[in-house]
């Protein structure tokens, strides 16, 4: 790179950190795990732990976001993620507006920037964004006026940080710590924002090994740069595993000539009882859902004793409550210091 | 018209002595070290200024006709004049596409009345740049097109490409093609490497370019067409061009200035400014492209100037429009490479003057009896490219807010003042 060159990748973490954290290190947006350190991720997990108890009460509410408006801005359809974000916001006592932009403004030709300006005019405090383009929440965070928190609910192939964190919470509940863990992620890594965020989270939290198991057509180019080990043969790849995370396989992958058939994929990379037996006996099985039974996972495994798939869903609400409340308090702290500065100038 | 111009005390780069130039009717009449005493209509005291031949750009998007919100011939040629260019080739990717004599005539008419420099239209090689039907290349050539290109679009298939080459060869026309295998490039917008892997960007593999370079070189060898490969981005492409030339294939090549400065890492903050086609690649590609310019395998550096309105870049990276507004800063960016010892000044100047001029069979350089196309610079002064300082309508410049070396004071095209620093 030359002197004039823009942000190198090594500086990307710093830029992501600056975008997401306030001057004194509080979370104000939650867009990517890049640039967030182990202490911050642990703080998120601890906060989520404290919210799990709220879900067990008869009256499942805390007033942390009372009077705040949260807009669920979904440019790509989703049932599960949107409902857990909605539930999380409501348990924090926020007012929630659900916008399905697929069928609304952008199909009338309105640009994303204009849609945002209109929503800001409604005095929203937080946008929960899902978008089919990698980097969309990044762009939104850089475009909106200060004071609005952006939470990434999944962007293109880039990141799905709340999903990764709820997975980390699930792992911590089962394994207590990350040191020494061998974790495999199996399946369509190339197209998976979940995998990218999980890799980052596991590496930051200190997992011993992150192993990617997939055929070459479902791995990104230059996969070695991700700092993981790569295994094409799943039977070999199951050895010594503490955690195996299965990814959802989209049916379109067959049409794009990335795979020959679901049957062949299941035979080679589907998690069945036989393959699971090759891992450590206490290996847990995870899946971000929705699962394709008989494509990436056998029903007996998905519903079996080693599966923690349903715990993941419960943890999803707690993690989302944690990042929403933390980002909101970061924004409030910034607003306070901004108005204090303005007061000082007068 | 008999306007005359006298330049006193200019210095050629790397030389201690000064020269004087006397220009009349657009031609350099005398150029020597002695003071010229002839009376002139305009006298420029060029003490402390460096005299450079006018630059030639093989790939410049002027946005007219059809894209006035991004720029027009008047605005973008003024910007080019400020960049030191006296000749720009106008890419056919306009609206309508320059695939008919009427559009070529329109471009030339507007340029005649509003451009301070020479504008040479490049015709579309295929109708509507669709890559399926040949355009009227001979008619376009007669109307003034100096070469034929398909913009950033690929030919539909190798058969069309082969016929396009065979037809151009028949009439001794030059094809300037950007090599891309569309099936491999697909919907990608970033180099298929470590940044794309980490950020989940849609990748364009290196082989999307190199497979096309190989195909084009084989077909050029077979048809005998004069082929110019535009905007190379891969080390392997430069190797293949050098090897084909050794075999006697008539092939020349260029690279965009931004490919010599930046790599895939420029996209690591999702910065849509650096969304370009072909994508910025790796450090070893960048080094190989620089070496290609230095040893002459790459004949020309182009601006690949693509001014945009702000809306074109205000969106998530993957849906932004590609390209930067570069023509005002190309030479300054080149000087930064010279300052870092990555490129010699001699190679930089060759790639901006005689290299590209030869591709389109134009004269270049400074000599008595030649066209008065030159510029005068303070090479050590600095400036910054930004909305306040640019003449182009496009503000998405490479290296915004950075000090750029090389401030132009005068640009003279065909003996007339094309740009003067105010």
From TrEMBL, chain A:
Domain named Aspartate/ornithine carbamoyltransferase Asp/Orn-binding: residues: 179-326
Catalysed reactions, as listed in the record: carbamoyl phosphate + L-aspartate = N-carbamoyl-L-aspartate + phosphate + H(+)
Residues reported in the UniProt entry to bind carbamoyl phosphate: 80-81, 130, 160, 163, 289-290
Keywords in alphabetical order: Pyrimidine biosynthesis, Transferase
UniProt KW Transferase keyword: yes
Domain Aspartate/ornithine carbamoyltransferase carbamoyl-P binding: 28-173
Ribonucleoprotein is among the record's keywords: no
Enzyme class: transferase
A Gene Ontology biological process term: amino acid metabolic process
Function: Catalyzes the condensation of carbamoyl phosphate and aspartate to form carbamoyl aspartate and inorganic phosphate, the committed step in the de novo pyrimidine nucleotide biosynthesis pathway.
Record family assignment: Belongs to the aspartate/ornithine carbamoyltransferase superfamily. ATCase family.
Subunit structure: Heterododecamer (2C3:3R2) of six catalytic PyrB chains organized as two trimers (C3), and six regulatory PyrI chains organized as three dimers (R2).
UniProt-recorded name of the protein: Aspartate carbamoyltransferase
Protein's organism: Marinobacter segnicrescens
Source organism phylogeny: Bacteria, Pseudomonadati, Pseudomonadota, Gammaproteobacteria, Pseudomonadales
TrEMBL record, chain B:
Residue span(s) of domain Dihydroorotase catalytic: 49-233
Keyword Ribosomal protein: no
Gene Ontology BP term (one): pyrimidine nucleotide biosynthetic process
GO cellular component: cytoplasm
InterPro entries: DHOase, DHOase/Allantoinase_Hydrolase, DHOase_cat, Metal-dep_hydrolase_composite, Metal_Hydrolase
Keywords of the record: Pyrimidine biosynthesis
Gene Ontology molecular function: any one: metal ion binding
Record-linked SUPFAM superfamilies: Composite domain of metallo-dependent hydrolases, Metallo-dependent hydrolases
Protein name stated in the entry: Dihydroorotase
């Amino acid at each position: 790179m030359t002197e004039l060159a823009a942000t190198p990748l090594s500086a990307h973490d710093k830029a992501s950190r600056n975008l997401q954290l306030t001057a004194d290190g509080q979370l104000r947006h939650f867009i990517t795990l890049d640039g967030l350190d182990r202490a911050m991720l642990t703080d998120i997990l601890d906060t989520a732990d404290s919210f799990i108890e709220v879900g067990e009460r008869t009256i499942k509410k805390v007033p942390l976001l009372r009077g705040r408006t949260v807009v669920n801005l979904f440019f790509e359809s989703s049932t599960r993620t949107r409902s857990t974000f909605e539930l999380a916001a409501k348990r924090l006592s926020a007012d929630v507006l659900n916008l399905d932009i697929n069928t609304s403004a952008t199909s009338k030709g309105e640009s994303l920037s204009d849609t945002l300006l209109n929503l800001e005019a409604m005095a929203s405090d937080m946008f929960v964004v899902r978008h089919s383009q990698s980097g969309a929440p990044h762009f939104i965070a850089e475009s909106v006026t200060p004071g609005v928190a952006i939470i990434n609910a999944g962007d293109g192939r880039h990141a799905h940080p709340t999903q990764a964190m709820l997975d980390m919470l699930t792992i911590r509940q089962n394994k207590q710590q990350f040191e020494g863990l061998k974790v495999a992620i199996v399946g369509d890594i190339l197209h998976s924002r979940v995998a990218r965020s999980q890799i980052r989270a596991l590496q930051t939290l200190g997992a011993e090994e992150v192993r990617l198991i997939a055929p070459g057509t479902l791995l990104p180019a230059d996969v070695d740069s991700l700092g993981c080990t790569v295994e094409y043969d799943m039977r070999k790849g199951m050895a010594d595993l503490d955690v195996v995370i299965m990814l959802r396989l989209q049916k379109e992958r067959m049409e794009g000539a990335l795979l020959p058939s679901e049957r062949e994929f299941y035979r080679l990379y589907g998690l069945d009882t036989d393959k699971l037996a090759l891992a450590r006996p206490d290996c847990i099985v995870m899946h971000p859902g929705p699962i394709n039974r008989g494509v990436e996972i056998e029903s007996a495994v998905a519903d079996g004793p080693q599966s923690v798939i349903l715990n993941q869903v419960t943890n999803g609400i707690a993690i989302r409550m944690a990042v929403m409340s933390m980002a909101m308090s970061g924004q409030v702290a910034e607003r306070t210091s901004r108005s204090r500065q303005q007061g000082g100038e007068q | 018209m008999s306007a005359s111009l006298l330049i006193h005390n200019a210095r050629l780069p790397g030389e201690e002595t000064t020269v004087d130039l006397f220009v009349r009717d657009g031609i350099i009449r005398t150029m020597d070290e002695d003071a010229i005493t002839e009376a002139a209509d305009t006298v420029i005291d060029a003490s402390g200024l460096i005299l450079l031949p006018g630059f030639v750009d093989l790939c410049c998007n002027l946005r007219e006709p059809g894209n006035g919100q991004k720029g027009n011939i008047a605005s973008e040629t003024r910007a080019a004049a400020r960049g030191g260019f006296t000749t720009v080739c106008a890419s056919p990717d306009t609206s309508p596409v320059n695939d008919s004599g009427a559009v070529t005539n329109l471009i030339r008419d507007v340029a005649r009345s509003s451009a301070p420099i020479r504008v040479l239209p490049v015709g579309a090689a295929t109708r509507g740049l669709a890559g399926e039907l040949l355009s009227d290349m001979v008619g376009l050539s007669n109307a003034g097109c100096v070469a034929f290109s398909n913009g950033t679009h690929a030919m539909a298939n190798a058969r069309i490409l082969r016929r396009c080459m065979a037809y151009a060869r028949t009439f001794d026309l030059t094809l300037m093609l950007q090599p891309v295998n569309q099936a491999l490039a697909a919907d990608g917008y970033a180099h298929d490497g470590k940044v794309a892997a980490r950020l989940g960007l849609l990748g364009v593999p290196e082989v999307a370019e190199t497979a096309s370079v190989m195909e084009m070189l084989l077909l050029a060898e077979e048809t005998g067409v004069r082929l110019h490969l535009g905007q190379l981005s891969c080390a392997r492409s430069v190797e293949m061009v050098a090897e084909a030339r050794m075999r006697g294939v008539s092939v020349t090549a260029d690279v965009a200035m931004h490919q010599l400065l930046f790599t895939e890492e420029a996209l690591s903050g999702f910065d849509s400014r650096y969304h370009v086609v072909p994508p910025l690649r790796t450090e070893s590609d960048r080094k190989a492209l620089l070496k290609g310019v230095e040893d002459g395998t790459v004949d020309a550096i182009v601006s690949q100037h693509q001014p945009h309105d702000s809306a074109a870049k205000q969106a998530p990276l993957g849906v932004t429009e590609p390209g930067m507004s570069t023509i005002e800063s190309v030479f300054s960016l080149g000087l930064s490479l010279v300052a870092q010892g990555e490129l010699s000044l001699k190679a930089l100047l060759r790639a901006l003057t005689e290299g590209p001029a030869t591709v389109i069979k134009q004269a270049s350089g400074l000599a008595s009896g030649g066209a008065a196309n030159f510029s005068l610079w303070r090479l050590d002064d600095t400036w910054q490219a930004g909305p306040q300082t640019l003449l182009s309508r496009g503000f998405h410049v490479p290296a915004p807010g950075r000090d750029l070396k090389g401030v132009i004071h005068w640009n003279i095209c065909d003996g007339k003042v094309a740009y003067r620093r105010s």
